[in-house]
Structure formats: structure tokens, C-alpha cells
Design goal:
mainly beta
């Protein structure tokens, strides 16, 4: 049968609350002993029973106000982390779970946590008068940024960068890209350039990666003075490109054997400058080396 309860929390013959529940909450304004009277009513609101009991309200954690508590935190990568609580009246504190704390009663705790999710409790007070507060900590693996492989391009070329690994993206230097905030922007290459990609996940953790774009270069060698012998002189064109075709010539004519050959042998009869042209996958390069007869 349904029952009702009339509550007099201060034994002052004043009804403070009518409930259908046997368990209620009431906040007393100060410490001390209070007498509580409860009248049990039947479904017709007839009083069937009166109960009286005393409650002692003592100074406890409710008076130990928390001045500071480390908020719920997300940590990006394994690193040192500090839990800290500051309470009024130097109230007793105790951190848990115990396996993480060498001195759980210390208000400041320095931790090194592996990847995972943690629920730390701090109990304020002692004996029967305690209250618990909770701090949630997540240690996340940072996102793995991938800026793509290093590349080689013609001076002044526009290439396509290729990034991955994050929710949001940021390329630097931004002025070298059409849009630094997308994974695969076009990039202008006026000179050798390092591109740094920073990616960020949904929790704000970041990861970085770097790629290098070199410009194609052709080097025919140093100008030099030689005492020519019958064997002649070897010229060697060097480039950092691939799939390159070469053409050697002088100011006067194409050199026999100098087509598609990075290395040639020459025997100049007078001071001569040799010009080498290279076509590396459509990137046209040229350099000159001058030989003076000593």
C-alpha cells in the first residue's frame, strides 16, 4: 500500500516536507545536533506511526571548500603530468587508485602516465565525514603526420604536396602554397624549400613531419687550365635529376659522342668553353665549363 511521509527536520512542530520517498535530502545551516520527526501516513493520510531520531552535523569536507582542482585533462603523448588540489583549512586529502601514488596524502602529485584513460579520485576529510572528487585524464597518442616523400623540381615549378594523418592540416611556409590548410595544396618552388606539415586531431593533439623539395641542378665542372696530353680531358656533367638526356657542344658545333652522354672526352686545340644541356623529364638545364690551355 502506498505510504506518505511528513518530515519535521528541526523538531519545531512545523512540517518541512511531504514525500512518497523514504530517503530524502536536507541541508542544515550549521553544525550541531538536530532531532528529526517523521510521521508515516497511509493512503487515506491517517497517521499510522511516528518516528524520532537525532542527527549530529559535524564540521567535515562540506566546510573544506575546494580552492583549486586540476580539471579534466587530455594529454598528447606520454609526458609528465601534475595532479593538484588545494582545499581550505588544510583538510586531509587522499588520492586514488593507490597504485599510481607513492604518497597519496600529498595534495600535489607528479605522474608519468602511459597511453590510456584514467579516473583519479581525491577523498577530502576522514572518518565518516568525507567527500570524493574526480579528475579524468586521457593520454592520447599524437597523430602521425606524413608530409610525403622528398621531391626534386625545376626552379620556379609548381608541384603538388601530399599530406595525411590528421583531421586538420597546416603547411609552412604558408606563402609557398595555394592553401596551407588542406592536405594536398599546390606549392611554388623558387628555390630549395623545406615544407613542415602540422596535423591536429579532434582532441587538439598535434603531429609534425617535414619534407624537402630540391631544385634540379646541372654542374659541368670547374673552369680549369690544363697542359693537354694526347689522352685529352674528361668532362663530367652531374645533376640531381633522373631520366636526363644530355647534349654537349661548343660555340661552334655539337661534339661527336656528346649526345645523351653525361661524360665525354675532349682534346681542345685552343681555349674552349663547353656547353652541356640536359632535359630531365621536361626540365631544361644548362651549364658551361671553360678549358684554358696552359
Amino acid at each position: 500500500q502506498p505510504l506518505r511521509f511528513l518530515w519535521d527536520f528541526n523538531n519545531d512542530n512545523q512540517i518541512d516536507l511531504l514525500t512518497a520517498e523514504r530517503i530524502v535530502e536536507h541541508q542544515y545551516p550549521a553544525t550541531g545536533r538536530y532531532r528529526v520527526r517523521v510521521f508515516v501516513l497511509d493512503e487515506r493520510f491517517n497517521c499510522t506511526e511516528e518516528r524520532v531520531f537525532d542527527i549530529d552535523i559535524t564540521a567535515g569536507p562540506a566546510q573544506a571548500r575546494i580552492l583549486y582542482l586540476t580539471p579534466d585533462t587530455t594529454i598528447c603523448g606520454e609526458s609528465a603530468f601534475q595532479l593538484r588540489i588545494l582545499v581550505e583549512n588544510n583538510a586531509v586529502v587522499h588520492w586514488g587508485p593507490s597504485q599510481y601514488f607513492a604518497q597519496p596524502e600529498a595534495p600535489v602529485q607528479n605522474l608519468l602516465l602511459p597511453f590510456g584513460q584514467y579516473l583519479f579520485t581525491c577523498r577530502i576529510g576522514s572518518g565518516a565525514c568525507v567527500k570524493d572528487t574526480v579528475v579524468r585524464v586521457e593520454v592520447r597518442r599524437p597523430p602521425v603526420a606524413n608530409a610525403g616523400p622528398d621531391q626534386v623540381a625545376c626552379t620556379g615549378a609548381v608541384i603538388r604536396l601530399s599530406g595525411s594523418g590528421g583531421g586538420t592540416y597546416r603547411w609552412a611556409p604558408p606563402e609557398r602554397t595555394e592553401n596551407p590548410d588542406i592536405p594536398n595544396p599546390a606549392a611554388f618552388i623558387p628555390e630549395p624549400t623545406y615544407f613542415v606539415l602540422t596535423v591536429r586531431d579532434a582532441k587538439g593533439c598535434t603531429g609534425t613531419d617535414t619534407m624537402f623539395v630540391d631544385v634540379l641542378r646541372l654542374n659541368a665542372g670547374r673552369d680549369t687550365a690544363v697542359c693537354l696530353t694526347d689522352e685529352g680531358l674528361t668532362l663530367h656533367a652531374r645533376t640531381n635529376g633522373t631520366n636526363c638526356g644530355f647534349l654537349w657542344r661548343t660555340n661552334y658545333n655539337i661534339i661527336a659522342g656528346g649526345v645523351n652522354a653525361p661524360i665525354i672526352r675532349v682534346r681542345p686545340e685552343r681555349d674552349t668553353c663547353y656547353i652541356v644541356n640536359a632535359d630531365c623529364s621536361g626540365c631544361l638545364l644548362a651549364d658551361t665549363v671553360c678549358i684554358r690551355l696552359a
